[in-house]
Amino acid sequence: MIEPNPTERGRPFWDGAADGELRVQVCTDCRQARLPAALRCGRCRSPHSTWEAIEPVGTVLAITTVRRPGHPALADAVPYRTSVVSLGESCHVPMLVAQDAPEDVAVGSRVAIGFLPVTDEQRIPVVRGHASPAHGDEEG
Amino acid sequence: MIAGVGESAYARELDLDDEELAVEAGLAAAADAGFDPASIDGLCRFAGLEQVDFAAMCGGLGMRELRFFAEFPFGAEAIAGAVSAAAAAIEAGQATRVLVYRSLTQGSQRRRRRDAPPSGPRPPGPARAPRGDGAAFAWTAGQIAPAVSFGLMASAYAARYEVDADDFVNALGTVAVTQREWAADNPRAILRDSPLTLEEHRESPLLADPLRTRDLCLESDGAAAFIVSARGDGVRGVEILAAKQYLDPRYRPFSLDRDDLHRIVPPEAATPLYSAAGVSPSRIRTAQMYDASTFMVLQMLEAYQLVEEGRAWRHVLETGLGPGTPLPVNTAGGNLAEAYVHGVNGFVEAVRQVRGDSANAVLDADVALFGAPLGGGVILGAA
């Protein structure tokens, strides 16, 4: 397992993850959400932003099974699945897939996001499995 | 124009350091152009990646003066930037002969890592990602090796175009097998005596689904170089019909921060390249595509408008990229089978194809494309 080492700008996401909350940076002026954190809004260029917790669901854009560790700290973790999850237009988040997530999580799946401890203080986002039907048609 | 091209020896490991290899390639390019190496007065290199500095090149080549030096970001993407800037510098009278070089010793570095005495047990507990907001996400998600990024993009491609898993493995495998076939007739290619079958490709270990070890490029030692000069300078130059740097931060190498993860190249990149060259994609007689993985070749065939979007996997299976096909690709074996020189070897091959002196010369290859993943491309034409 690997723990994050964010900048001050990006730290609110990880503080949220530690508390079990999925937080995104939101433009105060046009309400566009973004991740990773950025200096200005990609849509309206506003420098004003805040952090807000959102419902922990997203859509899988890409998924693979990693068979060889790219780092010694992952030697015991392989094979593992990893993905990129869209939380909305400007939020594309690389995310581990939980070991017990269903086999049929695939590109296009609506998924529920949970948090996995990496240290006593820090948790990281993970794909837990399919989102419950209540969340299933949020994106139409 | 591109006045000359050259390379050092290519091998898994050589007893030469980066500097010796770069100088060897530079001298070979000067000899190829028929130039006194001392007459080279400009240099370009890959920013942040190239280890050989300009002083070493000035010394090694015996250059009298250095009037233009520039660096360009990323890997193969640097090539189009260097070609266009060098041509502009020459046009502006700042320099006359600009050498672009790339030297790599990944092969021997890999062995040294392997042979290094063990550094003792890793401290218990989690490792820490390098500082940065992108790295925080990528590393905690276990997305560290390049193969993982490529595997993720390949998964997005297969899903978007509903490519059957067997067809996809065969299409990727066909790219790998075909480039070995090209390498067999290229005396410089590291894997010239190592033919590959589709079965061997399929049975090679998976790294990050759907990519296997045989889908990834070599790690090798070697350098390649070429010289940009004014039109009419030298006797065997080829024309630069267009050279366009193109940088979109969402598509920077290994970035996954976008919706269209099935693409490696920004969709808008190729159109201005063809407009500037004044040729349509159908005029390309052979393409040299940067191939860190087989998947990149598929996607770049589409991005450079040589094959309809979503159809490259089918084109590879039904028409192929090898000898005798309408569009031969990576005809020296590429980074998969010739050597890993960050695409400069592919650019060198594009020049040789237009000149007609490639070991695998394609008939009437008067227009050739060199394409890189970020969208930086060069179109070359016979002088």
Tally of discrete structural domains of chain B: 1
CATH homologous superfamily of chain B - what is it?
Answer: Thiolase/Chalcone synthase
CATH class of chain B: Alpha Beta
- Our Rg estimate of chain B from Cα atoms comes to 20 Å
The chain-level structural class of chain B is: alpha/beta
Give the low-confidence spans of chain A.
136-140
Oligomer: heterodimer
User: Stretches of chain B where pLDDT falls below 50 for ≥5 residues?
Assistant: none
Rounded to the nearest angstrom, the distance between the terminal CA atoms of chain B is 8 Å
Order of helices and strands of chain B: EHEHEHEHEHHHHEEEEHEHHHHEE
Major beta sheet, strand line-up of chain B = 1-8-4-2-3
State mean pLDDT of chain A (0 to 100 scale): 93
Total helical segments of chain B: 13
Helix-residue proportion of chain B: 25-40%
Explain how this protein is built.
The complex is a heterodimer of chains A (140) and B (383). Chain A contains 2 helices and 9 strands, in the order βαββββββββα. By secondary structure, chain A is mainly beta. In chain A, the strands form 2 sheets. Chain A has a 5-stranded mixed β-barrel with strand order 5-6-7-9-8. A 3-stranded antiparallel beta sheet of chain A has the order 3-2-4, covered by helices on one side. The longest helix of chain A has 8 residues, at 11-18. Chain B is an alpha/beta fold and 383 residues long. Helix content of chain B is 36%, strand content 16%. Chain B is built from 13 helices and 12 strands. Chain B has helices at residues 18-33, 54-61, 77-91, 106-115, 133-140, 146-160, 165-184, 198-203, 270-277, 294-303, 312-318, 334-337, 344-355, and strands at residues 2-7, 42-46, 68-72, 97-105, 127-128, 206-208, 211-212, 221-229, 239-244, 286-289, 367-371, 377-381. In chain B, helix 1 (18-33) packs across helix 2 (54-61). The A-B interface holds A 1-7, 9-10, 13-14, 35-37, 61-68, 70-74, 77, 80, 82-84, 86, 89, 92-96, 106-108, 118-119, 124-125 and B 122, 125-145, 147-148, 151-156, 158-160, 205-210, 256-259, 261.
